[in-house]
């Protein structure tokens, strides 16, 4: 037999030393005990004969998807939303348990839909529950940033995987500051929503139908090499999208002042592309859903109260725990007491391997937590410890073009205790306030052992003893 | 209370830096509120809400420094603080960022190819790490003990599907293409390949063959349960296959306790299908000992069987043989040869290693028992083993020789190792002999000699 050219040592250093003395290089694993109470479940899942191929299949399915922008259309048409139906971010939530920004966004959206004249009147409407219903965006092939409220009258981006015909949806980004998704519902917020639905979206519909399909996955590939991580920094992506759509916007036949206003709005909103990045990520991850035995996370989402994950091998079940406080910087006079816990479907970007996972490619934003450029590099490297593979399309130049860490593995999170790193905005905790800051956050640790326990249960029940 | 608002046209820092600067300045003495920001419409709104009047000519390309101070005397300090904070925010972190070590076997294996995984984490965690190696298609040695049987089966089934070799669990010794893993002796390459279910049994064989000038290319441990009715020799088959594929191996030696009956037939059949001959050395009552097995291998290879070396000489002393061992198989072998009423202890047994290092690494416990056993009036002769090789105590004779020289009972020692071992076998033997011990290379030889000194072979 040939001599091993290197040895990976996991455990006693003494044994590694003995190998090193024989002039064979040793990689020493920094092994630590897994999360408390997960040992037996980890073994059961590791023994599941379906696991390895299921995870390979899940990762390949996800990486195989190219998301293209094919349309912009009212949610009533493409999502079949009826009057009184509200989609929201995160796992399922009731009005009673909803946080301030979630309530504020629901109230504003109720006014936008004409269900109430004054957003404040919507409180009684939601408390009564009559003629209104709440449902996660994720249950309708959609995603929404922050509160993620999507209603019939809002227009949505339509993304399609041309190979399968599957589609995902997301509203248009309203900009920063006092906006509905952060729980603001002042008159100017509602007015902006009407402008989006009445002017911007129809214009974009015409432009996309003329210029599309637009390769959103391809724009993500490029923007990751231009300093965007596609969650908290979307500048390059926004401008590339504008570049791709501008000629068709100009020739759309819409009035020049409207076209100019639309371009000004898009160009001035650094986060405009986020609402394209998110459904692109969901489109890819949805390809990995319902693969028995796979331990890959296919969704991370927060409703401002709960943080939930879904896993490829456990169907539509949500594993939830309390949303965490964001560690970051605050706008103006705001401080930690003003911030709501983590909220939004935007962690779909991290689930797909960008956002916080691609921090190394966006060192400009690492200072959100007083960090340094080495911190950014280390964050991305650390995420490789909990992922199944790398995305060959999405690469990080400063890490020698290594692909982004992709496919969060529930078992690896439980084994290492390393939690997914999420870049996010911070909503004010009171309804109506809007954005108060931005920073970094992780999921509540306990949801991963919960998902693991379910995977173990399924593995044992399907494995003949 | 006084406010200070200042526009700095042409100055620029990114919004995150400025949020940080603002936070720093807010913490300075005499500063009630501070906001340093680019004068974007959004920021101007924020500043207005904070109560600052921003000049109408402000553009997004101007930096605004807005301060609310307890009184005007704090202004100079606050502005100095702004400058300092802006400088600090742009200072490079000079510290080099070392790449963190991998946290799982899977992650480590991704960093390089052609690796062998060597796992010695607690038994409850070993399976998960070992599966990483199997999943990646890498061979793995599981040094850990206390791995549940069903996990061993699952591991070896997955490995068999992928053509991966699993050594262990509870595999103490392996030589893979000349590289010693775990407690392994340094041997020259040669015509023999070993598959062994026992660690120190394998080491005895390596030491004897080395003495006879026969090299060993690879010695693959498979763990004590591999030939059980449950595991059914999954690892033994793969190990045999690997050695059969190796053109340097002329004879394969399979060392084990007798397998479960139907497993024995399966393995014999498999061994018979290989192009390399397989010598099956079965250990146990009424069977040849390890030394006899080594001699049989030598004869099969057409080599001369040497006289196994003995250094020093111990005197007869009637009584019981007290065997104090660090090697489990060596202890079993001695016990089988000597039988009742002689007593034998394996200090490597789980009962003695809980909460402490293996006696091949830490001799303290056996040394304590040695003095006690010697003081027992029923004791005639003391029988010990010393196992050399990688990973073992760097100089076992240093403390053992001192302990032996203080005893008034004859001591016979089997020193299992090769001349090339890091401990220098020659020096170890000499030190023990100088202390009064009679030192053998063959454990079986040492045992028979101890019996003779204690009053004759049974």
Q: Compute the number of helices of chain A.
A: 15
Mean pLDDT of chain A: 95
Given as residue ranges, the uncertain stretches of chain A (5+ residues, pLDDT < 50) are: none
Share of helix of chain A, binned: 25-40%
Largest sheet of chain A: 4 strands, antiparallel
Structure, described:
The complex is a heterodimer of chains A (465) and B (458). Chain A is 36% helix and 20% strand. Chain A is an alpha+beta fold. Chain A folds into two domains: 43-60 and 289-461, v583 fold; 63-278, Enterococcus faecalis V583 domain (Enterococcus faecalis V583 fold). A four-stranded antiparallel β-sheet of chain A has the order 7-6-3-8. A four-stranded antiparallel β-sheet of chain A has the order 11-10-9-13. Chain A has a three-stranded antiparallel β-sheet with strand order 12-17-16, with no helix packed on it. The model of chain A has no long low-confidence stretch (mean pLDDT 95). With 458 residues, chain B is of the alpha/beta class. Chain B has helices at residues 15-26, 41-49, 75-90, 105-110, 123-136, 149-162, 199-211, 234-245, 261-272, 290-300, 328-338, 350-353, 364-375, 396-405, 425-434, 443-454, and strands at 2-9, 31-38, 62-69, 115-119, 140-142, 166-167, 173-176, 179-182, 192-196, 216-221, 251-256, 278-282, 310-311, 320-325, 343-346, 379-387, 411-416, 438-440. In chain B, helix 7 (199-211) crosses helix 10 (290-300). The longest helix of chain B is centred in the N-terminal third of the chain and has 16 residues, at 75-90. Chain B folds into three domains: 2-93, Alpha-Beta Plaits (2-Layer Sandwich); 105-300, 3-Layer(aba) Sandwich (Rossmann fold), CATH 3.40.50; 310-454, 3-Layer(aba) Sandwich (Rossmann fold), CATH 3.40.50. In chain B, the strands form five sheets. In chain B, strands 13-18-17-16-14-15 form a six-stranded mixed β-sheet, sandwiched between helices. A four-stranded parallel β-sheet of chain B has the order 10-9-11-12, with helices on both faces. A three-stranded antiparallel β-sheet of chain B has the order 1-3-2. The model of chain B has no long low-confidence stretch (mean pLDDT 91). The N and C termini of chain B lie far apart (104 Å). At the A-B interface, strand 1, helix 1, helix 2, helix 13 and helix 14 of A face helix 1, helix 2, helix 4, strand 4 and helix 5 of B. Strand 1 (6-10) of chain A pairs parallel with strand 4 of chain B, so a sheet runs across the interface. Chain A: It comes from Nocardioides caricicola. Chain A: This is DUF1116 domain-containing protein.
């Amino acid at each position: 037999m040939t001599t091993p050219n290197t040895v990976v040592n996991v455990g006693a250093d003494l044994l590694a030393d003995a190998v090193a003395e024989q002039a064979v290089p040793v990689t020493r694993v920094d092994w630590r005990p897994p999360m408390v109470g997960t040992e037996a479940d980890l073994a059961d899942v590791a023994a599941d004969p379906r696991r390895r191929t299921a995870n390979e299949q899940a990762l390949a399915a996800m990486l195989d998807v190219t998301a293209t922008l094919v349309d912009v259309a009212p949610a009533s048409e493409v999502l079949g939303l009826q009057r009184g139906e509200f989609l929201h971010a995160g796992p399922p939530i009731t009005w009673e348990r909803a946080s301030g920004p979630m309530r504020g966004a629901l109230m504003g959206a109720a006014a936008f839909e004409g269900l109430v004249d004054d957003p404040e009147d919507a409180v009684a409407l939601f408390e009564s529950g009559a003629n209104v219903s709440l449902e996660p965006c994720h249950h309708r092939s959609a995603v929404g940033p922050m509160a993620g409220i999507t209603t019939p009258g809002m227009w949505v981006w339509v993304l399609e995987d041309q190979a399968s015909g599957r589609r995902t949806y997301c509203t248009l980004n309203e900009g920063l500051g006092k906006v509905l998704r952060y729980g603001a519902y002042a008159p100017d917020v509602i007015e902006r929503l009407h402008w989006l639905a009445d002017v911007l979206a129809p214009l974009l519909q015409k432009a996309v139908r003329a210029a599309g399909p637009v390769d959103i996955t391809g724009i993500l590939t490029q923007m990751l090499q231009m300093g965007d991580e596609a969650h908290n920094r979307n500048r390059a992506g926004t401008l590339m999208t504008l570049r791709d759509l501008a000629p068709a916007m100009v020739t759309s036949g819409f009035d020049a002042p409207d076209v100019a206003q639309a371009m000004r709005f898009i160009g001035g909103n650094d986060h405009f592309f986020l609402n394209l990045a998110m459904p692109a990520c969901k489109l890819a991850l949805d390809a990995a859903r319902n693969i028995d035995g796979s331990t890959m996370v296919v969704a991370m989402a927060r409703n401002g109260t709960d943080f939930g994950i879904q896993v490829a091998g456990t169907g539509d079940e949500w594993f939830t725990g309390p949303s965490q406080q964001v560690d970051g910087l605050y706008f103006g006079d705001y401080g930690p007491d003003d911030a709501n816990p983590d909220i939004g479907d935007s962690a779909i970007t991290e689930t797909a391997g960008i956002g916080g996972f691609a921090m190394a490619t966006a060192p400009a934003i690492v200072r959100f937590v007083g960090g340094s450029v080495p911190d950014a590099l280390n964050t991305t490297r650390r995420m490789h410890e909990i992922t199944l593979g790398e995305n060959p399309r999405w690469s990080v130049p400063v890490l020698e073009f290594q692909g982004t860490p992709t496919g969060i593995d529930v078992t690896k999170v439980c084994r290492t205790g390393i939690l997914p790193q999420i870049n996010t905005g911070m909503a004010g905790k009171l309804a109506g306030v809007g954005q108060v800051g931005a920073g970094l956050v992780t999921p509540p640790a306990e949801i991963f052992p919960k998902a693991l326990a379910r995977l173990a249960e399924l593995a044992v029940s399907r494995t003949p003893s | 209370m006084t406010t200070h608002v200042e526009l700095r046209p042409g100055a620029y820092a990114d919004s995150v830096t400025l949020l940080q600067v603002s936070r720093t300045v807010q913490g300075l003495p005499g500063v009630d509120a501070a906001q340093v920001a680019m004068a974007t419409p959004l920021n101007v709104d924020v500043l207005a809400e904070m109560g600052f009047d921003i000049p109408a000519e402000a553009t997004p390309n101007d930096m605004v420094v807005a301060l609310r101070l307890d009184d005007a005397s704090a202004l100079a300090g606050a502005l100095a603080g702004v400058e300092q904070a802006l400088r600090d925010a742009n200072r490079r972190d000079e510290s080099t960022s070392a790449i963190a070590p991998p946290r799982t076997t899977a992650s480590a294996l991704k960093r390089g190819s052609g690796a062998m995984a060597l796992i010695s984490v607690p038994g409850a965690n070993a399976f998960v790490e070992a599966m990483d190696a199997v999943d990646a298609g890498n061979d793995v040695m599981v040094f850990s003990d206390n791995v549940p049987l069903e996990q061993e089966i699952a591991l070896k089934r997955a490995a068999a599907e992928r053509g991966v070799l699993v050594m262990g669990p509870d595999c103490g010794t392996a030589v893979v293409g000349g590289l010693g893993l775990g407690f392994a002796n340094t041997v020259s390459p040669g015509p023999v390949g070993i598959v062994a279910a026992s660690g120190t049994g394998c080491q005895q064989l390596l030491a004897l063959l080395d003495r006879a000038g026969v090299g060993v290319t690879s010695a693959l441990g498979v763990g004590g349960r591999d030939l059980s009715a449950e595991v059914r020799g999954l690892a033994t088959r793969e190990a045999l296959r690997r050695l059969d594929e190796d053109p340097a191996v002329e004879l394969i030696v399979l060392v084990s306790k007798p397998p479960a009956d139907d497993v024995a037939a399966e393995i014999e059949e498999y061994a018979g299908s290989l192009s390399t001959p397989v010598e099956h050395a079965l250990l146990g009552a009424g069977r040849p000992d390890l030394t006899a097995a080594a001699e049989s291998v030598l004869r099969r290879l057409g080599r001369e069987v040497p006289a196994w070396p003995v250094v020093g000489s111990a005197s007869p002393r009637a009584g019981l043989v007290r065997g104090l061992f660090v090697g489990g198989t060596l202890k079993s072998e001695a016990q089988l040869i000597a039988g009742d009423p002689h007593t034998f202890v394996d200090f490597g047994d789980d009962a003695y290693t809980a909460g402490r290092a293996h006696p091949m690494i830490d001799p303290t416990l056996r040394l304590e028992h040695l003095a006690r056993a010697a003081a027992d009036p029923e004791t005639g002769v003391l029988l010990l083993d010393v196992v050399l090789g990688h990973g073992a105590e760097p100089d076992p004779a240093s403390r053992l020789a001192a302990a032996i020289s203080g005893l008034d009972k004859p001591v016979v020692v089997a020193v299992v190792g090769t001349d090339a071992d890091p401990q220098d076998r020659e020096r170890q033997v000499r030190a023990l002999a100088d202390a009064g011990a009679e030192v053998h290379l063959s454990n079986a030889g040492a045992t028979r000699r101890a019996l003779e000194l204690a009053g004759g072979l049974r």
